[in-house]
């Protein structure tokens, strides 16, 4: 390994991506990322920033518009997140959503009160001012409300734009400044005209040119990678998942033979996963691919281990060791490419202007520590997952790979409950492949977010032919979710479940019972361990 510096900052200069950006200040809303995605759907670049960023710093960033997100706090609570009131005087258009509207009113002389009952759900909204924000909308629209407090009085400086039966100021505008407030949530799909409202703000009010395009992003990123990497070598770990595949495809386009990919087969992959990756990155992209067959090592260190977190810890440790050893063999390797996405950057607090970490979803056991000594390249760190998928398609990756359901770093180990053994993995892998085959055949793979089989650590009695059996049980898990933080079980058709069950019991030796998991998250999690 020849690299020395480690970098947590991207080599990709976001500033050169566009001068037409909208920023969202995050007040702890579960919807801040959704707002940013909706804005990007208008082909306008959008970035999430800390709620307490100074007006001065905002002036330097020079966004075309500022959106203040919602948030769980009450504006009068001690320690409630605030914004720099100076931002309203910058002359940059501001849209406050829910909590963001309440802050706007407080800063500019309105009154916010706690409503007797929290309002949550759909409401009919009458638009009384059909200009600007509400241009080209009907006089009455359905909106989604989710708030405890609401604005009960506005100062002379504001005028109302919309109302509902319980909310006299569903939307307001400042008479002189380009400042707007909205009690409802335009970013959620339950506000059907929400996309048009955000478009009116971003394009109409802020005057953004809708020119943020993934193809431009890819082109610019490729150029920047070429410039930065020079003649040195980049290593990229492949997992079979979409993020690492897109990173590898992008790097291959940028530097071709200077890229070396490493696939660690830990023996915990799904059926045909290794073959799929090898085929894609040697036949299609013709990249230099090193496959490390490390099944024995991983299974040896998992022997006798039943505790899920201990399984994760051991797998993570072994992965780093295997990767390090392989990487040391690669001459002139200076960079390590990783598939860090924008939500990871936001949640880890890695962006100095970004919101502080609120919830960290997972310690990704596929992650590699800084001590490896490489300089990092994270070309996807400005993108959301759906953008990464679109980019993958633009780069020529096959649909099958691009639309793959997420697969956890510890792989089948957390779906093989209790101790992991080679024999159990054979059973689980075969059952899982049948679940996926059948769901694909039914045309429902893309309709579900994550679907898989779990091998339970119980035996139960059955009868096959005339003989009594005492065999394994498989649970089928299929969920629908937008963010993987909450999820509902998929309402799969009975006929499909029947086919899955019959095939698994007939074709997978050692299984005599199949159950369907009908628990939502919370309180259950998506994985069983
Ligand atoms: P849970 O089970 O917490 O999973 O509802 C939410 C999402 O995270 C994935 N997951 C993991 N991903 N390392 C990962 O890289 C892990 O240890 C891990 N555990 C769960 C899970 O598959 C789902 O998509």
Number of helices: 14
Name the CATH homologous superfamily of the largest domain.
Answer: HUPs
Under the CATH scheme, the architecture of the largest domain is 3-Layer(aba) Sandwich
Helix content: 25-40%
Number of strands: 18
Radius of gyration: 26 Å
Query: How many individual domains?
Result: 3
Low-confidence spans: pLDDT under 50, at least 5 residues? 1-9, 357-366
Named CATH topology of the largest domain = Rossmann fold
Strand order of the largest sheet: 2-1-3-4-9-8-7-5-6
Structural class of the helices, strands and pairings?
A: alpha/beta
The CATH class of the largest domain, by name, is: Alpha Beta
Specify the overall morphology: globular
Please describe what this structure looks like.
With about 525 residues, the protein is α/β, with parallel strands linked by helices. It has 3 domains: about 20-205, 3-Layer(aba) Sandwich (Rossmann fold), CATH 3.40.50.880; about 215-400, HUPs (Rossmann fold, 3-Layer(aba) Sandwich), CATH 3.40.50; about 415-515, 2-Layer Sandwich (GMP Synthetase, Chain A, domain 3), CATH 3.30.300.10. It contains 14 helices and 18 strands. The protein has helices at about 30-40, 55-60, 100-105, 195-205, 215-230, 240-255, 275-285, 295-300, 310-330, 340-350, 385-395, 400, 420-440, 495-505; strands at about 20-25, 45-50, 65-70, 95, 110-125, 140-155, 160-165, 170-175, 180, 235-240, 260-265, 290-295, 335, 375, 450-465, 465-480, 490, 510-515. It starts with 20 loop residues before the first strand and ends in a 13-residue tail after the last strand. Xanthosine-5'-monophosphate binds near residues 362 and 526.
């Amino acid at each position: 390994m020849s690299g020395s510096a480690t970098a947590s900052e991207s080599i990709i200069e976001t500033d050169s991506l566009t001068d037409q950006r909208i920023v969202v200040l995050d007040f702890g809303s579960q919807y801040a990322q959704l707002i940013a995605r909706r804005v990007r759907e208008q082909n306008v670049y959008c970035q999430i920033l800390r709620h307490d960023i100074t007006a001065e710093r905002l002036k330097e960033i020079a966004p075309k518009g500022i959106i203040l997100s919602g948030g769980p706090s009450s504006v009068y609570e001690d320690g409630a997140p605030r914004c720099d009131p100076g931002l309203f005087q910058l002359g940059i258009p501001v849209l406050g959503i829910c909590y963001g509207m309440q802050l706007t009113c407080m800063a500019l002389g309105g009154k916010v009160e706690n409503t007797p009952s929290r309002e949550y759900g759909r409401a009919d909204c009458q638009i009384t001012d059909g200009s600007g924000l509400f241009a080209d909308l009907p006089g009455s629209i359905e909106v989604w409300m989710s708030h405890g407090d609401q604005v009960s009085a506005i100062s002379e400086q504001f005028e109302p734009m919309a109302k509902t039966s319980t909310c006299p100021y569903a939307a307001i505008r400042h008479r002189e400044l380009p400042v707007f407030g909205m009690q409802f949530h335009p970013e959620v799909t339950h506000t059907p005209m929400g996309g048009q409202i955000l478009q009116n703000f971003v394009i109409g009010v802020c005057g953004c040119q809708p020119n943020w395009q993934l193809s431009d992003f890819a082109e610019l990123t490729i150029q920047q990678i070429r410039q930065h990497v020079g003649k040195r070598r980049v290593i990229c770990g492949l997992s079979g998942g979409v993020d690492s595949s897109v990173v590898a495809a992008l790097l291959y386009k940028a530097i071709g033979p200077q890229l070396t990919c490493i696939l660690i087969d830990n023996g915990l992959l799904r059926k045909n996963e290794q073959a799929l990756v090898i085929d894609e990155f040697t036949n299609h992209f013709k990249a230099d691919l090193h496959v490390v067959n490390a099944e024995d090592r991983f299974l040896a260190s998992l022997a006798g281990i039943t505790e899920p977190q201990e399984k994760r810890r051991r797998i993570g440790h072994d992965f780093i060791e295997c990767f390090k050893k392989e990487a040391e063999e690669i001459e002139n390797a200076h960079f390590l490419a990783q598939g860090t996405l924008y939500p990871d950057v936001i949640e880890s607090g890695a962006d100095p202007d970004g919101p502080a970490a609120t919830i960290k979803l997972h310690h990704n056991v596929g992650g590699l520590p800084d001590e490896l000594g490489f300089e990092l390249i994270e070309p996807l760190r400005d993108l959301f997952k759906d953008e990464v998928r679109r980019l993958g398609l633009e780069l020529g990756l096959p649909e099958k790979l691009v639309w793959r359901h997420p697969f956890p770093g510890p792989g089948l180990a957390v779906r093989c409950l209790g101790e992991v053994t080679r024999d159990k993995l054979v059973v689980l892998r075969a059952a899982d492949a049948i679940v996926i085959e059948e769901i694909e055949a039914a045309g429902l793979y893309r309709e579900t977010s994550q679907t898989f089989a779990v091998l339970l650590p119980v035996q139960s009695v059955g009868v096959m032919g005339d003989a009594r059996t005492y065999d394994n049980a498989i649970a089928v898990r299929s969920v629908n979710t937008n963010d993987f933080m909450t999820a509902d079980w998929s309402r799969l058709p009975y006929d499909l479940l029947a086919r899955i069950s019959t095939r698994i019991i007939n074709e997978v030796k050692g299984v005599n019972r199949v159950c369907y998991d009908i628990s939502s998250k919370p309180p259950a999690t998506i994985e069983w361990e």
